[in-house]
Specification:
The complex is a heterodimer of chains A (about 180) and B (about 120). Chain A is an all-alpha fold. Chain A has two domains: about 55 residues; about 100 residues, Fumarate reductase/succinate dehydrogenase, transmembrane subunit (3 helical TM bundles of succinate and fumarate reductases, Up-down Bundle). Chain A contains seven helices and no strands. Chain B is an all-alpha fold. The termini of chain B are far apart.
Chain lengths: ~180, ~120
């Protein structure tokens, strides 16, 4: 807070030789003037600190400020779960992508190399990654479609957003089952 | 002012100045992927687990080769930008820069590897 006392200190700090004149002048200062003087004091002190320590550092609180609430504060909701799953599925698809590209490279290289990689891809572990990737791909696609809808400021109210959320979850499962059955 | 679209008015603003371009690139690539992904799943699902001969014969055809090539280009470009946002949210400082550069390099390396494999089988 800017107080009278602060302004006095400021003025004394700025011009010790003219203390008496400024002290009298203080009575005539508006609140805005006082504020400006205080800001100048902070600026001067910051530059003095910089000169002394050779670093740029204002005399302000940098580390211990309150943070806005994040994941740990909120109760999980359908909209928040479906949102975080969008990010998780999108980035987790990297695993399946690496496996498919490795498989393509092996197919282009030699029959022996293809046998090796094809064995990995069709093993239980490879099939688990493929299965997960199919669901992740459909989930991320539907969630992305939902974002394209939202971008037009449509369906942002809670009941519609929740319906879209269920649509993404159920839709991705249905599409995954269809994919596995057909292919 | 009223002759400008909302996007046009947002271009170049913000601390990084590239946020609108990034957002728009994600929108365009996601729309493209909505078409490409079902085709990709269809064309890949038909040959995964088949014999080497069948796989090579499949990708020698223009349709499957082009669908896989396009999906790899657009998909990895989309991944690169999306993973960048993930990193920007959770990693800061020098580590953030290193992670982003690593993701960009890996995305292009994967893209190039996949395209090389497809080109070799198709030609």
């Amino acid at each position: 807070m800017i107080t009278n006392k602060n302004s006095v200190i400021t003025i004394v700090h700025f011009a010790k030789s003219q203390k008496r004149i400024l002290f009298l002048g203080l009575l005539l200062l508006s609140n805005q003037d006082k504020r400006i003087l205080s800001y100048r004091r902070i600026a001067v002190e910051a530059s003095l600190l910089k000169d002394r320590k050779g670093i740029l550092m204002a005399d302000v609180n940098r580390g211990n400020r309150p943070l806005s609430p994040h994941l740990s504060i909120y109760r999980p909701q359908l909209t928040s779960i479906t949102s975080i799953l969008t990010r998780i599925t999108g980035n987790a698809l990297l695993l399946g992508t690496i496996m498919v590209i490795w498989w393509l490279l092996a197919a282009a290289t030699s029959p022996a190399y293809f046998e090796l990689v094809n064995g990995v891809v069709t093993s239980w572990f490879g099939k688990l990654i493929l299965l997960g990737s199919i669901w992740a791909l459909w989930y991320h696609s539907l969630a992305g479609l939902r974002h394209l809808i939202w971008d037009n400021v449509i369906g942002l109210d809670v009941p519609t957003a929740e319906k879209l959320g269920w649509g993404v979850i159920i839709g991705s499962l249905v599409l995954s089952v269809i994919t596995i059955v057909v292919l | 002012m009223r002759y400008l679209t909302d996007r046009k008015r947002a271009v170049g603003l913000g601390s990084a100045k590239t946020g609108t371009a990034h957002f728009w690139a994600m929108k365009v690539s996601s729309a493209a992927l909505l078409v490409l992904v079902p085709l990709f799943v269809w064309t890949l699902g038909r040959v995964i687990g088949e014999s080497h001969q069948d796989v090579i014969a499949h990708f020698a055809r223009p349709g499957p080769a082009l669908v896989v090539a396009l999906t790899l280009i657009v998909g990895l470009e989309h991944f690169k930008s999306g993973a960048q946002v993930l990193i920007e949210d959770y990693v800061h400082g020098t580590a953030q820069k290193i992670w982003i550069i690593a993701v960009i390099c890996m995305s292009y390396a994967l893209m190039a590897t996949g395209l090389f494999a497809i080109a070799k089988m198709a030609l």
